[in-house]
Design goal:
Layout: H1 3-9, E1 26-29, E2 37-40, H2 42-45, H3 64-78, H4 83-92, H5 109-124, H6 131-138, H7 141-145, H8 149-156
Antiparallel strand pairs: 1-2
Helix pairs in contact: 3-5
The protein binds zinc ion (ZN).
């Protein structure tokens, strides 16, 4: 078993029952005292290059979908929403618009995740080749000047909601 497979297996699903034919490729949740778990569909799991490079019609940059779902794992760890909050925020949204003129804490779970995956999309681009190249792209002046970068710097990296 590869390390990547083990890593992905360590992220198992709870809120993922209806994952089949929809566009949602993954979801995640946690239980008190247990690791955060994420479920991914077979389509993502068996993607060329592995699940961290999976693409869909919506998430067209390799890694973008994984980043989106990892943001949900971040939320579970840092926001610690109640199951009620999580379900309500997760099902009430029909658009996944990134935050623009609002603070991070004013965004719901999908707006926050969309903010992170959109920043990744715009700066990783589909052309990224390997980890070193990806790091270079995400640390480029353009990526750091992006209007959404403050969410990456001040919220995601600091674990601050
Ligand atoms: Zn989402």
């Amino acid at each position: 078993m590869t390390n990547e497979r083990l890593a992905v297996l360590s992220l198992v699903a709870i809120l993922s029952a209806p994952l089949g034919a929809g566009t949602a490729a993954a979801s995640c949740s946690d239980r008190p005292g247990t690791p955060i778990q994420m479920n991914i569909t077979d389509q993502v799991y068996t993607a060329p290059g592995g699940p961290t490079r999976a693409v869909t019609k919506v998430y067209t940059v390799p890694g973008e979908l994984f980043v989106h779902e990892l943001t949900h794992a971040w939320q579970l760890h840092n926001r610690k929403p109640t199951m009620y909050q999580w379900i309500i925020e997760g099902v009430q949204k029909s658009d996944y618009a990134p935050l623009t003129n609002r603070s991070w804490s004013q965004g719901d779970i999908e707006e926050q995740a969309a903010t992170v995956n959109t920043w990744f999309h715009n700066h990783a681009t589909a052309a990224w080749t390997d980890q070193a190249d990806l790091k270079k792209r995400l640390e480029s002046a353009e990526a750091l000047r992006d209007a959404s970068f403050h969410f990456i710097k001040d919220n995601i990296r600091l674990g601050k909601n």
